[in-house]
Amino acid sequence: MTGYSDLIQGITYPLLLCGEAxxxxxxxxxxxxxxxLQDILERYESANIFxxxxxxxxxxxxxxxxxxxxxxxxxxxxxxxxxxxxxxxxNMDGSEKIIPLVIGxxxxxxxxxxCNSLPLFYDTNSxxxxxxxxxxxxxxxxxxxFSKQKRKVALIADNCTAHCTVDGLKSIELVFxxxxxxxxxxxxxxxxxxxxxxxxxxxxxxxxxxxxxxxEQFQVSVLNAIFFIDQSWNMV
Length: 236
Fold this sequence. Notes:
The chain has 6 helices and 7 strands; from the N terminus they run ααβββββαββααα.
């Protein structure tokens, strides 16, 4: 994975290609970039500046319809039962990626009955969305890991309602992006998550082709998706 330090620095504001454009405040964003970001860059090395973001997907749907982005409505029905949310985080110089968190609807899906360990973290929410309790639990786990490494890090996140402030963190300084700025200022949204999703699509297609070659029905379980997510993140 290449670093994203140049992405924020190179952002210009006139071009907006997402639904947040109507509420976009270029002056506030410029102030955040010139003041808040510069302060972070002065106090932390790039290896200790992390960005965190979620992406959602309907994990069983083939590539032409497989993507669902944060903020899009998830209509009830069969597809909503197949949704997973993936929390990704990486540092500014591209040298470190944190093990992903996957959020599903069910605590123990049947496909995980005989699975003793997972390659990533798994949590549950009734809608398979990020929630404040999951966010806090995750940040406290990361904070403990960074504390063991004797590191102080800055963690840049958007102001999603589930992204609450977490008291008592010893090694993480939580820094929030300005409102409605994700589409232009979120580093992971500047190509990293796109590459992750492309890798997932490729793995899904490879699995489908393999099933066709074996003359078997193509099926993707939550457990399959978790291993695809792990592999995809390792490929970025």
